[in-house]
Amino acid sequence: MPIQHGPWTIHSSTEQYKDTRIKVQRDDVIKPDGEPGKFAFVKLPPGVSVLALDDEGRAHLTSEFRYAVGRDSVEVVSGAIDEGEEPHAAARRELREELGIEAEEWIDLGLLDPLTSQLVCPVNLYLACGLAFSESEREGTELIEEVTVPFDEAVRMVMESCITHAPSCTLILKASEYLRLHPRDRQP
To answer: Does residue 66 belong to any structural domain of this protein?
Structure first.
């Protein structure tokens, strides 16, 4: 039975590929112009991205080789939300695992859909402050180097395309605006 999906009508859905993280789906559709067609898209697990900002106004970022783009990428802490896990709990876990950081204060900076045309992968964005440092608990595939820079430098890195990871760019710029609108003692 056809399903209405906005101005599109879905007649059938076929899973083209699936592994532990990625699902590629192809739908047979009637397009908004009334013509039949196919629409393929990728589904990834929902995720979190965390910008850790210390009392001295330094951003604690990561640098890691990213296989898909074939180069090192400077990013905020990011990862998938496990099945049944709340986004805030995933953010706390990822920050502890990747950088060994616990945060006293968490500010929810909203949700990001990184590529709405062909990717379903909502990312919850958090600013973490009041940091305490310990040992990281990285996974075997994570060869992460910590990058600590003044927050203004992180903003510059976004503006000069030194940071290109979409959730990182969005989170750093949203945090900059949040901190401008909500002055605080530890503001960079």
So the answer is: yes
